[in-house]
Amino acid sequence: MNAFSLSRIGAKLRGGLVSPLALRRMGVLGMNARNVNYIARYNERRLYPVVDDKLNTKRAARRAGIAVPELIAAFETQPSRSRVMEVIEPLWKFVIKPARGSGGKGILVVVGRNGPNYVKPSGAEVTAMDILRHVSNIHSGLYSLGGKPDRVMIEALVDFDPVFDNYSFEGVPDIRVIVFRGFPVMAMLRCSTHSSDGKANLHQGAVGVGIDLASGKSCHAVQNGLRINRHPDTEMPFDKLQVPGWRDLLRLAASCYEMTGLGYLGCDIVLDRRRGPLLLEANARPGLAIQIANGVGLRSRLRLIEKMDIEDLERNVEERVAYSVQQFSAAES
Amino acid sequence: MSPRAQVYILAVLFALMGAGLTIYKNRELGFPLLPGEYRTVWTIEAKVRFNADGGPAKASLTLPREQRNMEVLGETFSSSGFGFNIIRADDEYRAVWSRREASGSQSLFYQLDVHQTPGAPLEQPLDLSTEVDKPFLGAREQEAVRQAIYSMVESAHERSSDTKTFTTQLLTALGDTRNQDRNLIFGYYKDRSLVDVALLMLSAAEIPAHRIRGLYLEDDRRRLDPEDLLEVYDGKRWVVFEPRTGSPGVPRNFFIWQRGGKSLLDVEGGSDSRVTFSVIANDVPARDVAMLSTSNEKEALVDFSIYSLPIEQQSIFKLILLVPVGALVVVLLRVFVGIRTSGTFMPVLLAIAFIETRLLTGLAIFVLILVLGLWVRFYLSRLNLLLVARIAAVVVTVVILMAAISVVSYKLGIEQALTVTFFPMIILAWTIERMSIVWEEDGPYEVVVQSGGSLLVAVLAYWVMTNSYIEHWTFNFPELLLALLGFILIVGNYTGYRLGELMRFRQLVR
């Protein structure tokens, strides 16, 4: 459990404040500017359902030819107990998700069986009862925004590429790419740690690793707002980290623009051992922690794309990725 | 037009409307801008006394006509045993008390509250007769007196250029005890007052004039006799003179009771009639004065506002009108500071509850209910209930907790805790539910951050909402809500950094 600690608050306060002018000089994008200048301006409200509901995302991705984890079953209505058991009985590994969960809430990962019990990645075991309750909770809207009734989806557990095995504790890292008007502008790898309890949220103690858009190599890594060089649990140095098939991953991220129509988009991507990059989910309100992980502000990169001519924006996926790789390499910015 | 420009135009429009209406209400209707402003309200009581003969009795008293710079806020009559009505005769209002049989000493009262406002005291032009009854100064008057009168008129005439200066000269001469003519006249008219004599002499000079009866408003005066002023027609307009000093204009604190009329009091069927006045000054909250004076005039802005609601609803609105202020506090803290709260406007509801409970009691009760509720909720979560049923169970738990807190604290003699009922139960139940999920998902640290943030915002909102200035403005100038709306629109356009981000992104600068 992520214990409440005074030392963490102390560390936060000790760092003190920086002047807003310094932040502006660094081109850091603030929450208010993100909401007003990017989300409100480039993300049409009517397009939100595509990304806010993971079942919709999956459907759209399949139409657009974007690889996603395999959907095993989806319950539109409150499923009966036997129906749920019927679905999960033959499965060894699976993930139960709310279609409209926010911030990774309500995701139950099962990595194996132990007799009648199901094993979570942390090694903890849950009973079939717990799973049924979880399904019922999702359905009642416990994890959805505004408590609206939600749909339950059961996905196959991704067969993760072992390349990150040494960079993650318990959980599996995913890669977040910010895509602005179809151009990937920044990327990071989120690695869970012991102190983040297997979760990949940076504010809960996960490590954010900035990924150089040009090479797919790590360029910067941060935990709890402090720069680190090695994974705190596995002691693996980050400078050896290299995301395989980086171009393919960027292509997948860039093509999410056509799929969703959203101008300012965050794509969460995982690497499958055999299938390569898979789109886990897309986010119309991606967080700003990616700037901390990269040690670079977003503003100047977004500005560059905002200044483009109309015809520049009509490039295809390949051209856009090429542009991003050339413009936004870590060495230059 | 870009949305941004629209926002600014709208915001400016709203702000101007709000400010304009506020200024209008302050300037024209006299609503005070600051709380605790007092206005002097004069309570004038006229006491009519007479000895009734035993038969039918009727007393009629001239009522003060509307004086422009004196606002009548209310009037009361006491007429024990007498029939009472107000009649209008010869452009005058008269109160008439009547009774079939009355004997012995009678006392009748008329009381009115007036409030002095800036502005000219008298309306011009006045539709009063400008006829002059030339006095008959023949056989009855001695020749010497007549000579004295004409010589004084003559000398005043020589030393003046127009009616105004003439009157001043005449009044100065009448006040001069060394003037032989004056002494002669007053020696002859022993039982006449200065104003009587002045009127006589003005009519001798063929200048239309009449008397004004009234009172000097001075605090705590009893058994006053009415004082007289002189009003003179200068050919175009009527000019008021203070007879003793001879200076033109109505004295500042003079309350005009009767203008140009004949008698102040008429009594039939009685004798020894007399009217005396007493004056008391009261300091009344300026807002009450404004409310009283506008309710008489049916001012649309006031008549079609929350003031026209019953008092009970008004006091509810007093609270409701504070909600936007609380919302503003939430907006400011979230946009400029970036405090995380559980439920966006939950802190405002908490703040409203705090207003009823007082701050410390409210905080204690809230924390107590939250802790106990979370504890119960953790047990409920093991029972595999459906969400709605579980939240309903938490609601019931919260209600039981509130009842228990009330009863226990009442028995212990802590009556303050009885105000627990003001907490919004459903909101509390949802807060408990959310907090328990936050606890499970993000750990207790996040629970402390979020509930601490909510409490901080609630306390700040409480502090702002209970500020006496804010309370005064929101209730007396609800128009300011428009200005507030404009401000919120502008804040909604803020794209700068939040205070929390200055800390969050500090690593990027080094």
Automatic annotation (TrEMBL), chain A:
One of its GO terms (cellular component) is cytoplasm. InterPro entries: ATP-grasp, RimK-rel_E_lig, RimK-rel_E_lig_ATP-grasp. The keyword Transcription regulation does not apply. It comes from the Bacteria. One of its GO terms (molecular function) is ribosomal S6-glutamic acid ligase activity. Keywords: ATP-binding, Ligase, Manganese, Nucleotide-binding. GO terms for biological process: SOS response. Gene3D superfamilies: ATP-grasp fold, B domain (3.30.470.20). Residues 58-309 form the ATP-grasp domain. It holds the Pfam family ATPgrasp_ST. PANTHER family: BETA-CITRYLGLUTAMATE SYNTHASE B-RELATED, RIBOSOMAL PROTEIN S6 MODIFICATION PROTEIN. NCBIfam families: rimK_rel_E_lig. This is Alpha-L-glutamate ligase-related protein. It comes from Microbulbifer yueqingensis.
TrEMBL record, chain B:
The chain crosses the membrane at residues 6-24, 319-339, 359-380, 387-408, 414-432, 444-465, 477-497. The keyword Ribosomal protein does not apply. The keyword Membrane applies. Keywords: Membrane, Transmembrane, Transmembrane helix. Residues 263-508 form the 7 transmembrane helices usually fused to an inactive transglutaminase domain. Residues 24-185 form the Inactive transglutaminase fused to 7 transmembrane helices domain. This is Inactive transglutaminase fused to 7 transmembrane helices.
